[in-house]
Design a protein that fits this description.
single chain; seven-stranded mixed beta sheet; globular; alpha/beta; Rossmann fold
Length: about 280
């Protein structure tokens, strides 16, 4: 993880890229969130990736908005009674350390073994605000993740799942399988995820997507149905917030881009749209 090769080698490297943008936001005097661990977690490679990928350093507003919205939805589900948060493909997220969480909350992070090991090394001397467990796992291992979900279902009464920056790398059939696996567990009640429209997916594939594809991290999932894609799979969209609209709210959106708002029954189609959605179990 420490070699200074500027190209993206695999999907795990995207976590360094995202941490770099969280570090940039943290340094702003008007920062929407503070992540004092992001710079250490991103390291020199995070900086190099952001400044080497085509358009890799032009989306700061989007990463800011996504992190902010996940923060807001995370605190909302906890305030509404979630006693266990499961962060799938947690990457280099540091929410258990930087958010004002109840000490009684249980937080479980799941990601590739190399990411878990790297993160544990960087944060070894830090103390999380709640009970934190990290589980090394490839989420494409269906049997292993089903066993994990069943175990977690026995450990809590109301579970909230986060999947930030995960589904876009899945094929449609893999998203369907994951959604059904989560819905099958009675105590998994909330799911916070980010979603891109087909139009946005095409834009991303034309820019940094080519290099990411060559590294085995291709952008794949952007359903035409929008959030309604998940309704037949057992999930009801409760709140949908666009990244561009959020960035515009805080005067961070790029000049010339105008936000589109979609409701719980809307679908952006070919319009470029990316947002964060809160779902409840149907």
């Amino acid at each position: 993880m420490n070699e200074l090769n500027s190209s993206v080698r695999n999907v795990s490297d995207t976590a360094l890229w995202v941490a770099y943008f969280r570090a940039l936001e943290t340094k702003r005097p008007d920062a929407l969130f503070r992540d004092p661990f992001a710079e250490r977690l991103a390291g020199e490679r995070g900086f190099q990736i952001a400044n080497t990928l085509p358009d890799g350093n032009n989306q700061e507003w989007a990463w800011m908005a996504r992190t902010y919205l996940f923060d807001q939805f995370t605190m909302r589900v906890i305030q509404e009674g979630a006693d266990l948060v499961v962060n799938l493909a947690a990457g280099l997220d540091a929410r258990p350390y930087r958010l004002n969480l109840p000490a009684s909350l249980e937080w479980v992070e799941v990601d590739f073994p190399e990411i878990v090991s790297y993160k544990e090394d960087i944060l070894a001397s830090e103390k999380p605000a709640c009970r934190l467990e990290r589980i090394p796992m490839d989420l494409s291992d269906v049997q292993a993740r089903r066993a994990l979900f069943a175990d977690l279902n026995r450990r809590a009464k109301k579970i909230a799942v986060l999947s930030e920056g995960l589904l876009i790398y899945f094929a449609t059939e893999d998203v369907v399988s994951l959604a059904q696996d989560l819905a099958a567990e009675s105590n998994i009640q909330n799911w916070v995820l980010d979603l891109a429209s087909p139009g946005q997916l095409k834009l991303m594939q034309r820019s940094s997507g080519k290099q990411l594809s060559e590294a085995g991290a291709a952008f794949k999932f952007g359903p035409r149905e929008g959030p309604n894609f998940f309704v037949p799979l057992g999930w009801e969209p409760i709140d949908i917030q666009g990244l561009l609209k959020t960035a515009a709210q805080f005067k961070r959106s790029p000049a010339g881009l105008f936000p589109m708002t979609i409701g719980r029954t809307g679908a952006p189609g070919d319009f470029p749209w990316t947002g964060v959605c809160l779902f409840n179990k149907r």
